[in-house]
Amino acid sequence: MDPRPVSAPLAAALVVLGLVLAAGPALAAGFAICGVSGCTGGGFGRATDPGLTRLLLLATGVVAALPLAVHALVRRSGRLGAYALALAVVATLLTGLVIGSDLRGCPRNVSYETCVEEAR
């Protein structure tokens, strides 16, 4: 274990870097949940894809935590690793909340049966 204290500015910069990089999968998850026309179904109509939405939400969390997790591995710091894990969970849940997803990858305002039917 590295006896040097963890640099707070470096850790903060790694968290910010991860969040910036996670914007890509988060944006893709926003499109995957209801399609290009959005959840209102205007334009081309709603096209849900719950499987892809769940995958992209998980990717958002992993990408957000990756820089901090790599730093934790290099420093062999379990505490930084725990922070990276917490960051991944929070980023995934907040992204789902922002895009309007439930835990199954469907829009919250659409029943699960309708969501699965639209995915076919």
TrEMBL record:
The keyword Transmembrane is assigned to this record: yes
Signal peptide boundaries: 1-28
TM regions (residue ranges): 52-73, 80-99
Keywords per UniProt: Membrane, Signal, Transmembrane, Transmembrane helix
The keyword Transmembrane helix appears for this protein: yes
Name assigned to this protein: Uncharacterized protein
